[in-house]
Fold:
Amino acid sequence: TPIVNSGGTIQIHAATGEVFDSVTSRLQDDLYFSDRVPRSSGGQTFNSDVLDVVFNTVVFHPRGRLSFGQTYYITVDAGMITDSLGTPFSVAQSDNWTFTVRQQPPASSDTYLLAADGSGDFCSLEGVLEALPDGSPTTRVVDVGPGVYPGIVRMRESNVRFQGAGIDQSVFAPKNSTLMNGSREGIVLTGSDVTFENLTIFNTYLKDSNGQQAEALAVSPGSERVFLDKVHLRSHQDTLRVDGPSVYMSGGKISGSTDPLWGTGAFYCDGCELSSRTSGHAFVVARSTRGF
Structure:
């Protein structure tokens, strides 16, 4: 697992050398890796941590939109990122970490490839959702390649199926809590007929002494027929909130510390693992007035 140290900077430069975007690591209260910035999804705006560590990946989520057809290069200050032994990692201009944005947006389609390595139609979940109309009479399919996809998401779309490369390989990694924003959910579904399969939804908010709620996934009351197939839902508290009338989970895992499964809706799981992430903490499923 990489370690981020305070004071270093990651920068995205235009090919001409101007800085397009940058983030300076500023560890705060063992909860945040950088200063928060506003970011929007589904018509709502949230405080967002631009820098994060997800499993073995350091994530810099740019604040601005990259320009079509433009080439950029990356620099990383020495010592900002180390391994557990303190070995520094850095990237200089001479290392030639470059990438070029596609020439134009992908054509409208019922199938998209979401790929963190740039080989697909989009690199971010929010980008896919902006391209998809909210509703469709047929199911749209989004193939999700290996990698980490950060960002708080408010998903109004219906008839969508997200097919990942495997649990903990394709990772939706929103970071949110009651301390960061008035709403604390990572991903909220308000549409119906939504499937997630072979992937992880991980609210990466770090545990704090106040026990901040931080759902990975919340299913709204009007969101029907949600299917979780071999999915890992992970956070420190209130991992999955089910308020919708029909959520079904097959295989996979729900891991958290306090009330990792709760809500007022109807939830059925078959062959799932429920796991406590905190040693010595009783694993609790909060009661539902309708039934789990």
User: Anything to note?
Assistant: The two ends are 36 Å apart (CA to CA).
